[in-house]
Amino acid sequence: MKYYIDFEPIGKRGRLSSEKLILDHARELGVDLVNICGGAGICGQCKVQIISGDASPLTTNEFGVLSPEEIAGGFRLACQALPLSDCLIHVPPESLTSPQRTQVEGDEILTYPVDPLIRFYSLKISSASVEDFRSDTEQLMEALHKQHQIKATSIDIKSLCDLPSLMHDGNRQTMAVVRDNEIISFHKSDARKIGMAVDIGTTKIACYLVDMETGRTLAAKGIMNPQIAYGEDVIARIGRAMEHSEALKLQKLVVDALNQSVKELCDQLNLNVAEIIEAVVVGNTAMHHLFLRLPVKQLAMAPYIPAVNTHLDVKAREIGLHICKGAYVHLLPNIAGFVGADHVSMLLALDAHNKKGVCLAIDIGTNTEICLINNKKTNHKKMTSVSCASGPAFEGGHIKHGMRASNGAIEHVHYEEGRIKYQTIGQMPPVGICGSGILDALAQLYKAGIINNSGRLSDDHPSIRNNDGQLEFVLAGKEETNNHKEITLTQKDIRALQLAKAAIATGITMLLESQGLSDNDIDEVVIAGAFGSYIDVASAVAIGMLPDLPIQRFKQVGNAAGIGAKAALVSQRHRKESQDIADRTEYIELAASTDFMEVFTKATLIGPV
Amino acid sequence: MKYYIDFEPIGKRGRLSSEKLILDHARELGVDLVNICGGAGICGQCKVQIISGDASPLTTNEFGVLSPEEIAGGFRLACQALPLSDCLIHVPPESLTSPQRTQVEGDEILTYPVDPLIRFYSLKISSASVEDFRSDTEQLMEALHKQHQIKATSIDIKSLCDLPSLMHDGNRQTMAVVRDNEIISFHKSDARKIGMAVDIGTTKIACYLVDMETGRTLAAKGIMNPQIAYGEDVIARIGRAMEHSEALKLQKLVVDALNQSVKELCDQLNLNVAEIIEAVVVGNTAMHHLFLRLPVKQLAMAPYIPAVNTHLDVKAREIGLHICKGAYVHLLPNIAGFVGADHVSMLLALDAHNKKGVCLAIDIGTNTEICLINNKKTNHKKMTSVSCASGPAFEGGHIKHGMRASNGAIEHVHYEEGRIKYQTIGQMPPVGICGSGILDALAQLYKAGIINNSGRLSDDHPSIRNNDGQLEFVLAGKEETNNHKEITLTQKDIRALQLAKAAIATGITMLLESQGLSDNDIDEVVIAGAFGSYIDVASAVAIGMLPDLPIQRFKQVGNAAGIGAKAALVSQRHRKESQDIADRTEYIELAASTDFMEVFTKATLIGPV
User: Does B292 touch chain A (CB under 8 A)?
Assistant: First the structure.
């Protein structure tokens, strides 16, 4: 009876205490589903998708509310379905009362020249006459050449379909959208010139619409990566995608989500999706490959070789992206199997190759990529990157009361006068603890001597109790939570956190060693990415995850990968630089190094290095 | 009750004499449908598709035999359905007892150097190692460069999907298929190197599989263009395709038919369709545009301007053609709205631009294209083309007992000692008369004085009778036909033929005039195309359709457009020449000329010019 239910992409998991509807169980775990009809099964708002596991048969109400496609896809009403086994349940964003926190903003460090590959040319087009039998294409090419001194060599075959009616029916005015030597589209003379930048993270996707003339971001949206329900981290995702049909399903999930996001952003701006004439997409190598339907199996097996590293240009329609029909998607280059285009994009956004001194650039996630930029000596510009398997602990994974950053998550913890104080997202009663809170808790308990440097919980603190043989520290008491259950940090949680922080610290140490540098040589530590934006740097330093440097040397820059994607969207120079960064960055495989285990073991100790 | 039933693509039409099943009516008209179960409605062999018109409700037998898709598509069993209105009925090839005659062979005049744009490189590929983290793409590009001194710049995105397993799982052997600078596919080292050439005619489609290493044709197949049921001639077809959804349907019909033909040809040769690595497609401008889903409306309105004339390269998958997934379709250039890539291809096959002297090249069809190649003076190479609306008479259209070339069609007629002798296709009892027979009949009756030079039938011949006020000449008596009905040539038929032959004769006359030449300057008349292969040239000269020249100056070359497509498939030089031919050929719009009507009126007279 005690089935284990996993709600994704929230990341809340728990055992059923008794036979219970999905809706009630979600409530108990603090997952707030929309429920307008009060559980009568008629409003259809609490739709969830059962990815794996069994539930009670469909009710008549569900047949009334769900479409046949939804039923075939495993959708249920949470207020009608009773789990009959362990279940993995996907909660679509529209079924949640409040959205999850997704970071899309980043510090715009770069000033980028607006110099896109795409150009727009307003044209007056003359019609054919009885004396002039040249084709529409020839007439147009001549107009482009005569009026703008531009020689295009081809027209996208789908856009060519629009040409005859422009030449013969319309007002003889059009705007040719030219990319390199190809005319990719014909727009109305007053159409907006919009591009789209996307950062596909394993957990989150950020999507930006950008004015191609000014480089300004017009609208942005963060969503959870809908693939989460099919594998939380990259390795699990790759495992799922081994089967070709599953890989195609995962690709479609992301593309459908992108199409929907783009549609929503366009609606906000009163734009047509066809006005988006270019997309730049970044992501880690696995996300990159899945997006392109490239196989990923080899990414999970040593020596973790990508199918392709160089930048690519692919027609958006080949991928299923519904933007301008002749548009391309430009994919920034990858560096290695676990150092992808998102890392390149981050480095581009940080203007890394032009930095002076020594800089560490870190994007913390289930996989953490770190680049050491060593421009200490003049004319010696070296970039070296590593990838660390930091695991899902910072996303709330494998942590007893862990969850992703959404309403009710404890995001900050402070220990004062023998008592824990915490802050939750949305100032709601606590339902779990997310990454930044976990980090704080570890640091605070360590500083207070409740956890020693080997990670052991002391057993003589009033907030510590023994639960079934395992010590745990009570962060929030029964009386504070809605479901009258305590939120704790267990000894096992601490072990998981030690492994996570050790992975990152090992990466930093070995990078520095490879260049004969030490902590003190570092002029700047740039922390990018959503998780990195929310953490308390002092906590990260306190536990020894980040180097023990003066706090002013740290800089939290938000979604730098997104910023880099935007730069590559509107600037040819930055697009070229991104390939240059990828070519110049040396990749070091940590696990291949002989002293890896030694360094790692040492790094599991808590406390400043 | 007397519904008019039109069986396509056979082109047999007639009124129902009484309430009658489609099968029985087809028999009466000489359309032989397969009928294994004797009309019991259980073998499902006599499947036909009702394109327009009503028929009796579906029988239980039909529900048993036809699939839901077929029922939705208007398919019926001819032995079960009773017409309830005028009907246009499409007969799929598999429902006919004997195939229609389609010309695919042509004289291979050209000797083409086998020099395809596509190259094949056998590669030994080394796998990545712990010291070498470069991507599969980089490894492969290096192998190609080291082993063959070839620098490729990109890999087709769909073919890239095959690379990781080649690099990591296989026998480390592959054959890279390179087109220009793009790797379009990876094949097994022993894969065949096959290309495909296609000539899409308004009535017939010819499809060839060619060995890309030797240039040899391995297999060929002619099929009827399945679009026929949606409009017999180009203008009707364009009319139908004005609506975008109909245009898409027409495109799919052709592509589906091509896919099926290719599959059959591959099965014959024990090939996989994925081994076809390039296609060259030619067709008249309307067929070209429909194939690419380009709009065709403007092709039917003065000044008849194509969307594009230059040659094009389009990924086969963008068009829906199931060959090698990275393959391209190369489309030869068009010249004008009614002088398309098939004309260019014919000129290429004839080596027209290298011909000496004066040559007329003619492709006779519902639209007849004529090129005058005038290389009389040294260093003066001029090619001028016209298009003549010769209409469907030579395809049996608008002729009372006309039909296309299939079993039972009278294909040759001779008048001797006051009596008509004829020959039918397949030596079957006559069921109608096809183009070559019609031409003979006109010539023979004219020579015998039964028709005068203005086209009037004499009224004092025993074979002439007055049917409802119209004179007609009985070619086959009741006793000779299976359905006991006479086959005649009517006064109205003769008028239609006069217009058709006048259109062609006018084109020739005006072309010669444009160059200041006369009939006697012509050194050679090349007659291309299926219809042109079967006609008796003497008959065509006798009625004044072709110039009155010694018979040895005429040459019937078969499907030259198909030959040209094959040449462009395997030879880069010929591909370039085809663009050169298109650029150099001047197009004259006949109807725009002031003396057009005068010349045309004179040309309607029967007899040698």
Answer: yes
The tokens 């083309």 sit on which residue? Answer: B385
CA distances from B126 to A540, A561, B142, B150, B185 (A): 44, 34, 10, 17, 18
Tokens of A50: 């059962």
ipTM above 0.85, yes or no: no
From the list B134, B307, B587, the residue facing A133 with the nearest CB is B587
Contact flag B138-A307 (C-beta cutoff 8 Å): no
Range scoring the smallest mean pLDDT among A47-61, A386-400, B176-190: A386-400
Question: What pLDDT does B99 receive?
Answer: 66
Residue A416: exposed, middle, or buried by beta-carbon count in 10 A (0-12, 13-18, 19+)?
A: exposed
Kindly state the DSSP code that residue A464 receives in the 8-state scheme: E
Pairwise CA distance, residues A22 & A3, whole Å: 11
CB contact under 8 A, A136 and B167: no
* DSSP collapsed to 3 states, B321-354: CCCCCCCEEEECCCCECCECHHHHHHHHHCCHHH
Stronger pLDDT, B392 or A457, i.e. the higher one: A457
Chain B hits for A181, CB-CB cut-off 8 Å, are none
Instruction: Sketch the domain layout of chain B as residue ranges.
Output: 4-95, 351-390+504-603, 393-497
Give B 157-216 residues with CB within 8 A of chain A. 157-158, 160-161, 163-165, 167-168
Partners of residue A307 in chain B, C-beta under 8 Å: 135-137, 160-161, 163-164
* Residue with tokens 């010819």, as numbered in its chain: B206
Strands in A75-77's sheet, in edge-to-edge order, are A12-15, A4-8, A87-90, A47-52, A75-77
> B133–A337: do the CB atoms touch at under 8 Å?
yes
Q: Which CATH superfamily is domain B351-390+504-603 in?
A: ATPase, nucleotide binding domain (3.30.420.40)
Determine which of A125, A129, A133, A289 to mutate to test the interface with B (most B C-beta atoms within 10 Å). Answer: A133
Chain B positions in Cβ-Cβ contact with residue A302 (cut-off 8 Å): 130
Specify the 3-state DSSP secondary structure of B603.
helix
Given a contact cutoff of 8 angstroms between Cβ atoms, the answer to whether A145 and A151 are in contact is yes
pTM score of the predicted model:
0.84
Q: Would you give the distance in Å from CA B169 to the centre of its chain?
A: 46
Q: Which member of B137, B157, B307 has the closest CB to residue A314?
A: B157
For B101, the 3-state DSSP assignment is coil
pLDDT > 60? residue A5: yes
Q: Which residue has 């530590």 as its token pair?
A: A525
**Domain A352-390+502-603 sits in CATH 3.40.50.300:** no
Query: B143 and B123 in contact (C-beta within 8 Å)?
Result: yes
Contact B293 A161 (CB under 8 A): yes
Chain B interface, mutation test: which of A129, A130, A131, A135, most B Cβ atoms within 10 Å? Answer: A135
The number of helices, as runs of H, and strands, as runs of E, in chain B is 18, 27
pLDDT in tens, B298-347: 998 888 899 999 999 999 999 999 999 999 999 999 999 999 999 999 99
Contact list in B for residue A318 (CB cut-off 8 A) is 157-158
- DSSP assigned state of A277: E
- If you write DSSP's letter for every residue of B158-177 in order, what string do you get? HHHTTHHHHHHTS-SEEEEE
Are the CB atoms for B363 and B528 separated by under 8 Å? yes
- Whether B340 has its CB under 8 Å from any CB of chain A: the answer is no
B607: nearest Cα among B456, B422, B471, B489: B456
Return the number of other C-beta atoms located less than 10 Å from residue A195's C-beta.
28
Radius of gyration for chain B, computed over Cα atoms and rounded to the nearest angstrom? 26
Taking the Cβ of residue B307 and every Cβ of chain A, the question of whether any pair is shorter than 8 Å is answered with: yes
Say if residues B433 and B402 touch (Cβ distance below 8 Å): yes
How far apart are the C-alpha atoms of A108 and A125, rounded to whole Å?
41
B410's tokens: 């009278």
Is CATH 2.40.70.10 the right assignment for the domain spanning B4-95? no
